[in-house]
Amino acid sequence: MKDITRHHDIFFANRLSLLRIWLCISTLFFTIETSFALNPSRYATQSQLADGYWVKVAVYESGIHQITYRELRRWGFSDPSAVTVFGYGGAMLPETFSENDIDDLNQLPVIRTDSKILFYAQGPTSWSYNEKTKEYDHEQNTYSTAGYYFLTDSKNQSATIAEREGGQTTELQDITSFDEHAVYEQELYSPGSTGRLFLGDDFRYTTAKSFTFELPGVDNSSPVKLRTSFGAKILGGTATLVFTRNGQTLPSSNTDNIGAGSSSSYDFVRMTSTLKEIDLDSEELAFTLLFRQNGGSLSMARLNYFRFNYKRKLQLYNGSIQFRLGQLPANSCYNLQGYSTTTHIWDISDPLNPVSIKPNVNNGNARFVPTKGNEEYIAFDEQATVASVEFIEKVPNQNLHGLTTPDMVILTPKEYISYAQSIARLHNENDGMEVAVIDHETVFNEFSSGTPDATAYRRLMKMFFDRKGGLDGEPLYLLLFGKGLYDNRKIGETGKYVKYPTLLTYQHGSGTDERQSYTTDDYFGFLDDDSGNRIASDKLRVNIGRLPIKSEQEAKDVVSKLYNYIENNDKGSWKNQVLVVADDENYAIHMEQAEEICSIMENSDAHCFINKVYTDAYTAEIGSTGRTYPSAKKKLLQILDDGVLVVDYIGHGSTVAWTHEDLLNIGDIQSMYLKRLPLFITATCDFGRYDHEETSGGEILCLNPNGGGIALITTTRVVYISDNHYLNSGVAQQIFKKNENHEYPRLGDILREAKCNIAQTDSNKLNYTLLGDPALKLLYPDYQIKVTEINGHDITQTTPTIQARDSVSIKGEIYTPGGEKATDYNGIICPTVYDSEVTVVTHGYGEEGKAIEFKERSNRLYVGKDSIVNGIFEISFKVPREINFADDKGLINLYCYNEEGQEGNGNESNFIVGGFNDDSNEDFEGPQIYSAYLNSEEFKYGDTVNESPLFMAEVYDESGINISDAGIGHQMTITLDDKTVYTDVSSYFQPALGEFGRGFIAYPLSGLSEGEHSLRLKVWDTENNSSETEIGFTVKAGLKPVIYDLYADRNPASTSTNFYLRHNRPDAVINVNISVYNLMGVEVWRYTGKGLSDMYKSYPITWDLTNGSGTRVPGGIYLYKAIISTDNEHETTRSKKLCVTGRE
Length: 1144
Hints:
The chain is mostly beta strands. The protein has 13 helices and 77 strands. The strands form 19 sheets. It has a 7-stranded mixed beta barrel with strand order 47-50-56-55-51-58-59. Strands 1, 14, 16, 17, 18 and 20 form a 6-stranded mixed sheet that branches. The longest helix has 16 residues, at 552-567. Mean pLDDT is 91; it is low at 1-37.
């Protein structure tokens, strides 16, 4: 045990203002009522800040503050006598709504002398009387270390100080001391990086520390109450707090003990609060605190605070004193000594409307009668030097109160305003939405007196919600465009090093246990008049999402990502695909929940095909790190690479991985270069945490500029399996649900409706958030495709059967989203015909493992592509010999598109697959393999290629190419070097347009060793005839790519242009550098990035015609060139010219 003595009067002496903070703090009382109908007329139509000259100042304590005329002149005020003060300072806003809530800025009454202005200011620490303990408790503002006020010379002085008489004091008992309070609190460390708890002094290594505090004016007739809050985590042991003073141990109590901590990673710290009463004989309080560990393993031991409640003599200290009594003696009056003609006494129980007391004065003693207990007063000498304010900035005019009520609000730090405006234009041009882009600092100015406070965001949205008509109004969307941090003030040991701008987060709970503490953006959407007290049962009224950017580059990338997604250039049946992923163990509950999700979606308006990856259905491999599912991971990544509209994962997870077996880990996520971006739904713990210094896997998926997802419905903290299902099934019910106008929902609508439809009080749902644009719609195909006939049978009247070897004809029609025949629709139909379902039995691996059965459609019978003419289509194909022969229903999944961008989909299952057609025409010839090559059609047998080439081939058979997996030994395969066989080749088969039997294979190979290799392709037709071809090649590591062309798609360019490279690395991950130079040879713009090429064309690289500082370049001729690299080798293009026009 070590002992360190520190004389804590230095703490007060070096920071005199802190003495005033702790000793002279006031409570800002707000009236909290249960429910009000807040009329829109209560809001100002124009902010005070809309005109005039304004300056913002800060205070760090509560009390009388001065602003000298000299300072005012220095800050730009020519006539200091005309300056008025607005605001209400640094106390946290109440989290419930009331008619008494301050709207905009209020003017404060002031006292003017010949050299300064005096006013009462509220600092960031508030005090309230605890009737149970008979002590004053304190609350630090969790969002701000200061309170803020505004100065102007453009408003008439309208605030006045009311007066009241001191009352009859004759024969009353004098009150000569009052209830003082002070606190020592070092907020340095958040135990769980969550909640509002920050601990201070560390006792792990120095277990005994001595403290000395000066308490000027202490009345030693009563003991000092020392309240100590302390936190520790000890596994397998306990601890005791021991207090000693003057060599004597203070009496102990049960609350001095700290119990054993839990081994759970969710349990961060055990707290205790203990009280000691100490008699003093001077104005100095000195004691030693010993942290005594009783066995076990210690990971944390920190002081939270010392709080002092004591009697103090009623007199002026350095020109002022703030005082009150929790309990008034009968027949008593205050007696303030040292009163003079320049002394003022204010009742500041309502600090916004102080009342001047006219006391009865006799020989410097001022007596007055309080009207009730716990009234708060401040006495001060106007000639004394009191606390000063700190100049912060000149405030530009603003007027959020005067905004037209928008459809969507984007809150962002000022650094990202231009990028947020791009998103606003996107929704304005595509959706006709009125979007307000707002610097969040301006929200504080009008809704929290300039003091950062998350409730200010909520009050802004409440104003818009009420003006829109409340529940009867149009939907309202909120995009939080910026990362958050649990440490809103950036005061902790790690948070203080965060330099990027952030938006505020709402932190619920103290932070001692992750299961009881969380962050939720829902708080900003709880807008009912009586909301805020019970947020687990409050209803969400705003569609909210967050894009957790932390740099201008991330802002730029995510804007490009949204624009590229909405441009919808990648037509394809991937928009019919949904992927449901489930974890093992826990008695198969994850898989059972997944099956319910699949059932909901199958019975919705989705017309989707559901792919299932349940890890327990795959063969596990046991290695040094435990069980893994490599085949399940490969399947998952393959389906993602092919493209799906939605991914839903159910199971265990963390901020960096899915499943204990790392089915998807941070490495997979960082290299996930997807061309088709899904919505990820993750019913797992912590995956989308956006309020930590470290970046979560969900954030990476959201922000990945060249892949990942377009958005996530994900979690920010630990969640519970059973409660997850309420939310996840609610999302499944909403995601494909059309409204009365036959429109699919926006992302924010989906999550809000899912949460509101949970009947029970449920805090688990608050841990779910949308990382994405809440006003974005997924790329739903909204036209309808209906099958009318199969082999001439009207399927509305009968259920036809198709057999193995049957020649099948399918006819159908296209309908508009509103259900009318689209007789003018001309485009492409993409059908996929599936066999009947098969039953899969899982293994029941692991602790609490359980084997279950589920069904899936794993066997495709046909994939095609044909024409639609005047809204009608017809498809013909031949059923393979090998089917499931289950005599059960099959499925036809359909997708269509046309040049006008109209897409549609449909499902049909009213037909049977079963039986065998013995009369079909015989075919004994294998398929024709027209070409087979690596990377390029110029490939010749024996050529040299890179380590990850793309194998391509064109095949044809008049009976059709067999893509069925029902038979044994008749799958399409690639054999490498006569030993490695790839059996998933049919998944990479794409049909030719309008020609049955013809198609193309594009199969990616990876990680090939250097040297000579052989590759053999084997293809079967539907009659089980095969053909094969073989090629030879040499692999060379680091082979340079070949660049065929570099071009800009808009030349001349007026607003932006996209650069593309044509090369010989199809579907490869490529590094691209683009540089643009003026004719003087000066580089004006550069791009460096990595992404997945679109076959032989690089991913688009967009230049917005601005230079590196964001300024638009002038019109003229520019030169551009590129460097492309793969496998650590690069190739440089020649320079080409680009014409940039003047501004449009």
